[in-house]
């Protein structure tokens, strides 16, 4: 009889632990200002510069205006709207020359070992590029894109004031 009670008590404990574990909800990771920095964009030489501070996201996309590398001009397109909710980043740029971008992605750790390495952070997602034509119609092109962080300078150690 004691054996039966011991087995029953053990099974109840195991069942209760299993229920408690299944009810626990994992919190999404919070990246905050750790992801502030520069990231690759669509083509070599283009980039996204982003700053996260106190939960607000600001930034700019610097891209080539045209496809001809000999006459390439940079166009800076500032974020019009941007949010970072846990690992999910969304931004929409202000239009420039009839072009604007919408990006929705997820922040994840990349292959870099430290922030001083390229690709320490990756933001993997979907980029939609929209063009307003001269007739007023809008075309769009959607593609998968991974924004990879550029190497960051190491933060110098603070020195004691004397």
If you had to describe this structure to a student in words, what would you say it looks like?
- With 162 residues, the protein is mostly beta strands.
- It has a single domain (32-148), classed as Avidin-like (Lipocalin).
- Helix content is 14%, strand content 44%.
- It has an eight-stranded antiparallel sheet with strand order 1-2-3-4-5-6-7-8, with no helix packed on it.
- The termini are far apart.
CATH topology: Lipocalin
Largest sheet: 8 strands, antiparallel
Poorly predicted runs of 5 or more residues? none
What's the CATH architecture? Beta Barrel
Overall shape:
globular
Structural class: mainly beta
Alpha carbon gyration radius: 24 Å
The total of helices stands at 1
Chain-averaged pLDDT: 82
| Strand content range | 35-45%
CATH superfamily heading:
Avidin-like
N-to-C SSE string, H for helix and E for strand: HEEEEEEEE
Compute the separation of the termini in Å: 76 Å
The helix content is: 10-25%
Number of strands: 8
Strand order of the largest sheet: 1-2-3-4-5-6-7-8
Count of the domains: 1
CATH class: Mainly Beta
């Amino acid at each position: 009889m004691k054996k039966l009670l011991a087995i029953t008590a053990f099974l109840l404990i195991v069942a209760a632990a299993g229920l408690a574990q299944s009810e626990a909800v994992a919190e999404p990771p919070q990246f905050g200002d750790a992801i502030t920095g520069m990231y690759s964009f669509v083509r070599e030489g283009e980039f996204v510069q982003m700053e996260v501070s106190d939960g607000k996201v600001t930034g700019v996309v610097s891209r080539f205006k045209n496809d001809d590398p000999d006459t390439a001009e940079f166009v800076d397109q500032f974020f019009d709207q941007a949010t970072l909710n846990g690992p999910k980043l969304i931004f929409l740029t202000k239009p420039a020359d009839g072009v604007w971008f919408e990006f929705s992605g997820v922040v994840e750790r990349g292959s870099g070992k430290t922030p001083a390495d390229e690709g320490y952070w990756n933001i993997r997602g979907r980029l939609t590029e929209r063009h307003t034509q001269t007739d007023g119609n809008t075309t769009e092109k959607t593609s998968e894109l991974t924004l990879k962080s550029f190497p960051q300078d190491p933060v110098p150690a603070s020195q004691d004031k004397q």
